[in-house]
Write a structure and sequence with these properties.
CATH superfamily of the largest domain in chain B: MetI-like
CATH architecture of the largest domain in chain B: Orthogonal Bundle
Largest sheet of chain B: none
Structural class of chain A: alpha/beta
Oligomer: heterodimer
Distance between the termini of chain A: 47 Å
Order of helices and strands of chain B: HHHHHHHHHHHHHH
Strand content of chain A: 15-25%
Helix content of chain B: over 70%
Number of helices of chain A: 13
Strand content of chain B: under 5%
Number of strands of chain B: 0
Shape of chain B: globular
Radius of gyration of chain A: 21 Å
Strand order of the largest sheet of chain A: 6-7-8-3-9-10-12-11
Largest sheet of chain A: 8 strands, mixed
Helix content of chain A: 25-40%
CATH class of the largest domain in chain B: Mainly Alpha
Shape of chain A: globular
Distance between the termini of chain B: 6 Å
């Protein structure tokens, strides 16, 4: 049994303009100790998927259906009291912007101990000791002194470390990281990712990492979920997604990766804009932007089908497998060739 | 910190000069002569001249201002020359109208105004904090819409009108509250029947509410907006993600941040309230600074007017300073340097 099993998750927001289908039938699961990367453009439903699992969407205006079984208990159906016991204890979350995710009027240490005291029956002193321990684990220098500092006295990278410490402080089974490195500069990004990898080995948590950066996925994830316009368009183990991508959108993502080792004239870009989730395109939602579009794509939404020859690799595309293999090989060969000539 | 204080005090001095000079100039621009009041029926040339001389009005304006300023300083250079102590009590002068020390006029009226303004501030906070928070938690609910109606009425209705309506309804028609009048909380003057904390409180209930309605309306709107804004902050989501119950999220993460701007506003509005008190004091016949100020203007009693302006200015400057220091204490992001 998987640690988290999400089945046909749908999150709709009622707005003045109509119903926005932010997540429209997402299914995935994650095992203990594994890392799942969810990739996609802004607005593809990655964050909303995770906020829904955590029950952090505004109650008002939100319609949620489907199941999110965490240790065989449905997170979506359980009462608030039970969900609060799980939040921050069994499942913890790191957010995108460390600059605004910490409360400016409370000391770092108190924000950390709050998380401990909410879930564990310990004294304040013990909680503080635990907070110090975690601050050291995430690499805050002079943690004894900095524990009594306020968030504004920390840099962005240091604040994200604090967020990670806060998330790990109760030894969660699942850590959800929503674009944990997006707001940080590149060197800090690498440090934070290394730290997360290291801490995963140490704490053994499963991680869901949400990102629009395939580089981050390549570096951290075991499995990948590619989302486009509120749906999953491709999923599978990371090496298969990178070696044999089977969906034109994934090709677009791979082609748009900036590379330092190749002399590329221009980055390949996916033309057009992400579709409106208020009125998504008919058929395959990617068809207006897809260079391989066929008539069938405009009428029927392709289901996720297993990719022949691969294990646990699914893609949603009407193209025949031969074409997809050929195009994928071409794309990857091109990238390798560029790397060689560069 | 010390440098900050010194800078603030220097600014206060500049402000003080500006305010008092403007009051002086305006007073002398009014086409009225205090000496006419002083002479009453006896409007002879001789009387007017004597009165002018007696009140010091025959000297140039800058000399009068200089004398006024000299009286305010806590040093007595004359005294020093005569071998007395150079330290003296700053004096606001003597009233044109009744020859009383302005110091004692202001000293008698200030507690009344302070009772009204501080009690009023407590009243408007008691009204606005719960309503503001509740309507922020349930936007567009019946309560929220009701609160916004109250805001509209509170901002539109003048305290004089509200005061008269209250007096008519609750004191004249239904005798639940007294018809104006002020009772001293401590040391009631001999010969008055009313005094003590209970009577003081009872007599001030209507004035407090009247005075507070406008501010309560503004504060409901402000607190509602602040709380709604803070509820959407990322750190509130973080607190929920930690598993904090909603009550704790509100108390420890939302309200603390949402109330920060309220503290600043409160300081400024208490100062502003000194002006607003004029209306309430006159409607309810409270012998506070506002009513004394109106009477002194009617009587062309410059020293009293000026005395109240000086007192008010100093009070406002002191308040703003206290608020700034308080703000630095409660918001760790602000450190005075």
């Amino acid at each position: 049994m998987a640690l988290l099993d999400v089945r046909d998750l749908k999150t709709y927001f009622k707005t003045d303009d109509g119903i926005v289908k932010a997540v429209d039938g997402v299914t995935f699961s994650i095992e203990k100790g594994r890392t799942l990367g969810i990739v996609g453009e802004s607005g593809s439903g990655k964050s909303v998927t995770c906020l829904t699992i955590m029950g952090l969407n505004a109650k008002r205006n939100t319609i949620t259906t489907g199941e999110a079984l965490f240790k065989e208990q449905d997170l979506l159906g359980m009462g608030m009291r039970r969900l609060r016991q799980i939040r921050g204890n069994d499942i913890a979350m790191i957010f995108q912007d460390p600059m605004t995710s910490l409360n400016p009027v409370h000391k770092i240490g108190n924000q950390l101990t709050e998380a401990v005291l909410l879930h564990q029956d310990v004294t304040k002193k013990q909680a503080r000791a635990r907070a110090l321990e975690l601050l050291k684990a995430v690499g805050i220098p002079r943690a004894e002194r900095r524990v009594d500092d306020y968030p504004h006295q920390f840099s962005g990278g240091m604040r994200q470390r604090v967020m990670i410490a806060m998330a790990l402080i109760n030894d969660p089974d699942l850590l959800i990281a929503d674009e944990p490195t997006t707001a940080l500069d590149v060197t800090t990004q690498a440090q934070i990712l290394n730290l997360m990898n290291k801490l995963q080995e140490e704490f053994g948590s499963a991680i869901i990492i949400i990102t629009h950066d395939l580089g981050v996925v390549a570096e951290t994830a075991d499995d990948v979920l590619v989302m486009y316009a509120a749906e999953v368009v491709e999923q599978g183990p990371v090496n298969q997604i990178f070696s044999r991508p089977h969906m034109p959108y994934t090709w677009g993502l791979l082609g748009s990766l900036p590379r330092l080792d190749a002399e590329t004239e221009r980055l390949v870009q996916i033309t057009g804009q992400p579709p409106s989730l208020l009125r998504p395109p008919s058929g395959c939602r990617f068809h207006p932007r897809c260079p391989y579009v066929m008539d069938v794509c405009k009428q029927t939404d392709p289901p996720l089908k297993p990719v022949t020859g691969d294990i646990d690799h699914y893609a949603a595309c009407h193209l025949d497998e031969e074409t997809k293999d050929r195009e994928a090989t071409k794309l990857l060969a091109g990238m390798v060739a560029e790397a060689r000539t560069g | 910190m010390i440098r900050y204080l010194i800078r603030r005090l220097l600014w206060a001095l500049v402000l003080f000069f500006a305010v008092t000079v403007v009051t002086y100039v305006i007073f002398f621009l009014i086409p009225a002569d205090p000496a006419q009041r002083a002479c009453g029926q006896l409007q002879t040339q001789q009387c007017l001249e004597q009165a002018h001389h007696f009140l010091g009005l025959d000297r140039p304006v800058y000399v009068q201002y200089g004398k006024f300023f000299g009286r305010l300083l806590p040093f007595d250079f004359n005294g020093l020359a005569h071998g007395h102590s150079p330290i003296k009590m700053p004096s606001l002068g003597i009233s044109f109208a009744n020859r009383q020390q302005v110091n004692s006029i202001v000293g008698g009226a200030a507690p009344v105004t302070a009772s009204l303004v501080f009690g009023g501030a407590v009243t408007w906070l008691l009204i606005s904090i719960p309503i503001g928070i509740l309507s922020a938690l349930r936007p567009r609910s019946l309560l929220d819409r009701g609160a916004m109606m109250f805001v509209l009425i509170g901002i539109s209705a003048h305290p004089v009108w509200i005061g008269l309506i209250f007096l008519y309804l609750f004191a004249f028609k239904v005798h639940i509250f007294p018809l104006g009048e002020y009772c001293n909380m401590i040391n009631p003057p001999v010969g008055t029947s009313c005094g003590g904390p209970v009577q003081w409180f009872y007599h001030l209930i209507l004035p407090w509410i009247t005075f507070a309605i406008l501010f309560a309306a503004l504060y409901v709107r402000m607190i509602r907006a602040n709380v709604i804004e803070t509820l959407n902050e990322d750190y509130v989501r973080t607190a929920r993600a930690k598993g904090a119950p909603e009550s704790k999220v509100m108390r420890s993460h939302v309200l603390r941040n949402a109330m920060l701007p309220v503290v600043t506003m409160l300081g400024m509005d208490i100062a502003l309230g000194l002006g607003g008190a004029i209306f309430t004091e006159n409607v309810y016949d409270l012998p506070g600074l506002g009513r004394v100020l109106r009477l002194s203007l009617d009587n062309f009693d410059l020293p009293t007017t000026q005395g109240i302006v000086v007192f008010g200015t100093v009070a406002i400057i002191a308040f703003n300073l206290i608020v700034d220091l308080l703000y630095a204490a409660i918001d760790p992001r602000i450190r005075l340097s």
